[in-house]
Amino acid sequence: MGSEVTAFSDFLHDTIIFLPVLLKGLGVTILLTGCSLVFSLVLGLGWALMTLSGNAWLSAISKTVVNVIRGIPIIVQLFYVYFVLPEIGVQLAPFAAGAFGLGLAYSAYQAENFRGGFEAVDRQLVEAGRSLGMSESTIFRRIIFPLGLRTALPSFGNTTVMMLKDSSIASTITIAELTRAGQLLAIATFKNGTVYTLIALLYLMASLPLAAGVRAMERKLSRR
Amino acid sequence: MITLEKVAKSFGDLQVLKDISFTVARGEVACLIGPSGSGKSTALRCINGLEVYDGGVIQVDGQRVGAENLPSIRRRIAMVFQRFNLFPHRTVIENIIEGPVFSLGKPVAEAREMGMDLLEKVEMADKATSYPAELSGGQQQRVGIARALAMQPEAILFDEPTSALDPERVGEVLNVMRELASDGMTMIVVTHEMRFARDVADKAIFMADGYVVESGPAVEVLTRPQQERTRQFLDRILALD
Fold first, then answer.
1. Could you tell me if A143 lies within 8 Å of chain B, comparing CB atoms?
2. DSSP secondary structure, A109-177, as one string
3. What pLDDT score does A2 carry?
């Protein structure tokens, strides 16, 4: 009984000391996720547009790239960006390499999210646009893009949550995000239980509101 | 104004249109009637290039309908769909001005003003800021007609405009169409509404199995059909009325 109370007060005591360090790591995690998210969306939209362009060459290129990216573990892609690119003269700072590598890795999944959304748009609405004399690019901009995004919103949300968690892989290329910050703490203090429990809770705190936010957005949009 | 000459169209092995010829003059209302699967909708969709026909020729004022001039043909010939096909992410007024602004390049303010007049005409002005999902089928179809009119078309194609409506909503849409007809709009209407065809149409074109079986003045075709196939169809459909 007494020892349990002591254990708990030790946990609280350690938490107060560890938390500032871990919160700083969480900040880096969120920033890294945000940067790689933006990059993955831009790149993913590019792949999706190439796939749906109707141009056989563009489509073949993007499909190949997406398959190659999806077939290689994210950690290997990160190592490639961080360790191999410098050999051909492209030297990136750890954070930039992490954002670039994660964004690249996830652009393949974002491409599928975009493509799924665009292809789910009712063909009859495309016909309505055609019957108004719209060009194919106007139809894409005014009909397929906005409606496709709406359909793909849950997928984007899920992908973002996955990216938040997978940003922990960036700990392997010396970025002091949440996992790396925690690892260093655990090594220095041997308080593995406390540190990794706190890390898990912080990831949860970041991802649960994200998931809830996506659900709220879905509800708002589905009313139309 | 619109002429089809020996138009043919296949979907894979299935020949939907075998030999379709008819003419609709400016200001005329023509009803395309016939059993389902007879190719009425396909023929209609070939006129504005939503389907590509593979034999014969379709002309609008002497201009051949083909891939090279589809946008310009479509800006002259509007379309009203069976399932309305309103843009679900845009309000009623936004649906109306979409074509004028993003296809014809009209200023938004001008398009909006004209759009409100059109909504007045179809008695939907009070719903200008509603979304399509908030409207009944009949209301959506009236918006669909206003959206077609906003293009200031020379003709309007109607593809079974009342088939997806609750029976009690059919009348309000037919009334708007009657009004358009009396304004002198050129209209081609695929429909099963025989009374509308008889009362409003100048011309009836009866299609079956990819052929035009019989065509002529609507009253003649609908009350004194010359062909046995037409008679059978009318007997069956009027028995349901």
1. yes
2. HHHHHHHHHHHTS-HHHHHHHHHTT--HHHHIIIIIHHHHHHHHHHHHHHHHHHHHHHGGGGGGGT--S
3. 62
Shortest CA distance from B73: residue in chain A: A133
**pLDDT tens, residue by residue, A55-100:** 999 999 999 999 999 999 999 999 999 999 999 988 999 999 999 9
Chain B touched by A134 (CB under 8 Å): yes
Provide the residue ranges of all domains of chain B, joining segments of one domain with +.
2-88+159-240
Domain span including residue A142: 33-222
**Structural class in CATH, domain B2-88+159-240:** alpha beta
Alpha-carbon gap: A149 to the closest alpha carbon of chain B (Å): 11
Q: B102 and A146: CB-CB below 8 Å? A: no
Suggest the residue from B65, B77, B87, B158 to mutate for an interface test with chain A (most A CBs closer than 10 A).
Answer: B87
Mean pLDDT of B208-228: 93
Average pLDDT score over residue span A140-150: 94
Going by pLDDT thresholds of 50, 70 and 90, the confidence category of residue A224 is low
Count of domains in chain A?
Answer: 1
Of B200, B198, B162, nearest to B181 by C-alpha is: B200
